Each structure stands twice: as structure tokens, then as C-alpha cells.
Amino acid sequence: MRSDLVIVSWWSNCLGLACLHRLVKYTTDRDIYVIQVGKPEEQKERFRAHLPSGIEELPYPPDRPAEDWRVRETVARELLGDHAGLWFVDHDLFMKEDWEDWLGDMDRRFEGSNACLCH
Known about the structure:
The protein is of the alpha/beta class. The protein is built from four helices and four strands, in the order E-H-E-H-E-H-E-H. Strands 3-2-1-4 form a four-stranded parallel sheet, sandwiched between helices.
């Protein structure tokens, strides 16, 4: 299993972008997704202009509640429900070194388990 990474970017563009740039730097061969919630459209556009290459933005319907659990549920059940594994990374988590060994170890641990949610 090779899990993918999902960053929920709330109101702050700077934190989300810094997190994404570091994730790209400290991970390899993983799909990284971002979903923007709770921002005006103009702010979302400014954010998109500075995304690292290879990051895919997921759409979140503007008419849905922007509570954290609802956003994660939408991603896990609807948008990326067919993925083997997902890590939800907070937009203010900053990697300082390679993260791939830890992620690979966790993928191996959870691959054969019945775990559906880990925190």
C-alpha cells in the first residue's frame, strides 16, 4: 500500500503553502492533494497560483458546512474513497526532514490490518 496525503487548507494561505512545499520536498512518489475550505474565492485563486507542481486540488462544494470532520468525511468517502490509504496532514505541520521512511513503515503496518481510522 502507498498512502496519499491530503492537506486541508483553511483560512491561511501562507501556512498551507509552506506545508505543501515541505511535503513535496520530504516525500517521494506520493499523490498529494489539497482542499481549500473557508476562504473567499479570490483567496483560493491566490493560493492556487503558488501551489507546488504535482499537487492536485480537490473541489469542496461551497454549499456544504466547512467543519473539519465534514470536510474529511467528504474526502474519505466521496472524493478519494477508492484510495488504499490517506493521511490527513494539518496545514500547519512542517516537515524538517525526509518523511518517507515513517510513511512507508506506517503503510506496511496498516496494509494488512482492519484499521480504517488512525490518529
